[in-house]
Write a structure and sequence with these properties.
Order of helices and strands: HHHHHH
Shape: elongated
Number of domains: 2
Oligomer: single chain
Structural class: mainly alpha
Radius of gyration: 23 Å
Number of strands: 0
Strand content: under 5%
Distance between the termini: 60 Å
Largest sheet: none
Length: about 150
């Protein structure tokens, strides 16, 4: 390693920012990704677990086009809202360079913010559900949609 330092004395300047200087932009993003990759991985995995009810209901809705499955999609979206909010909270703690315990921070955020995030996600889910149902009805009336592949 010493030989590399003598041959290229500026190499270390590209690897690390000087003390007290924060990286910005894309360099900051790569720095966070490099330093906190597993924290982000586990937070995203928890959020994906919160998405499982939505994914299951969406699968059944696309297979059957039943109104009960559509209600499941809307409710699954309401369940996903607190999970996405908690993922956002964990990411904000990482960006602010605060210590993060993923599971503890995730579940604390779900417990604290579930009302607002579930209500907002329920509204968004209802809008997307109405849009999907409208696309289905247009496809049925014009004969351009075949649900059996």
């Amino acid at each position: 390693m010493q030989g590399c330092d003598r041959m290229n004395p500026f190499w270390r300047n590209f690897m690390k920012a000087p003390g007290g200087v924060r990286r910005t932009g894309l360099a900051r993003w790569f720095q966070i990704l490099e330093e906190r990759f597993m924290t982000l991985f586990w937070a995203n995995l928890l959020c994906l677990a919160w998405a499982l009810p939505l994914l299951a209901a969406l699968f059944f809705f696309l297979q059957t086009w039943d109104w009960l499955s559509g209600v499941g999609v809307v409710l699954g979206t309401a369940v996903l809202g607190p999970g996405v909010t908690a993922l956002n909270r964990v990411c904000m703690q990482i960006i602010r360079d605060k210590p993060v315990s993923v599971a503890q921070e995730f579940f604390a955020s779900v417990k604290r913010d579930w009302k607002q995030s579930a209500l907002f996600a329920l509204i968004i889910g209802a809008l997307w559900g109405m849009f999907a149902w409208a696309v289905r009805l247009v496809g049925l009336t014009e004969g351009g949609f075949n649900p059996v592949l």
